[in-house]
Amino acid sequence: xxxxxxxxxxxxxxxxxxxxxxxxPRSGDLSVYWxxxxxxxxxxxxxxxxxxxERAKGNILERFSAQQFPDLHSELNLSSLELGDSALYFxxxxxxxxxxxxxxxxxxxxxxxx
Amino acid sequence: GENVEQHPSTLSVxxxxxxxxKCTYSDSAxxxxxxxxxxxGKRPQLxxxxxxxxxxxxxxxxxxTLNKTAKHFSLHITxxxxxxxxxYFCAASIGGDxxxxxxxxxxxxxx
Lengths: 114, 111
Prior knowledge:
heterodimer; A: mainly beta; 7-stranded mixed β-sheet; 11 strands; about 0% helix; B: mainly beta; 6-stranded mixed β-sheet
């Protein structure tokens, strides 16, 4: 157990819908990262937050948005869902930017868009 | 942004043999290079990392080498065991931010 939690574990929805994925980082970690992993694919970096502020943005679609709240948990919002959005979404956390530290991954949320 | 390429995409070795996975990166400012192992259906887990001020790092059967001039780094696994079978990802980032992953290498260790 990495200490990073993600909910829900599984999510099944229809095209055109909107979903919210939730991530709680390890205690004390200030940075949260979101990744998308499609079937048999690599890890695509979506976005990073540090202490409530967006720190870096990767290949995140305009239909997707995220935020990090004052209690440091983060949410990834996916809207106007398409079949191709079906994937495993991982959240990871690290201590922050004081020093380079290991990212700890959550168990992931498997999203299926029908 | 950073671009990380990883080779090979699949690798099959006999138990006890060595396995080598190579990655190249594009941004010379990258200074942190972790390697993650992902078993089927599980989360990625860090197995070793290296910073740009170090050329080589070893942890038991696993070692990583970094060539900053050529902008490439490699993972070496010696005396492979069946439990080493997994997908391995390299990554590169600047100070831990904006981490970009390679496409992954599926390693199979045959008993």
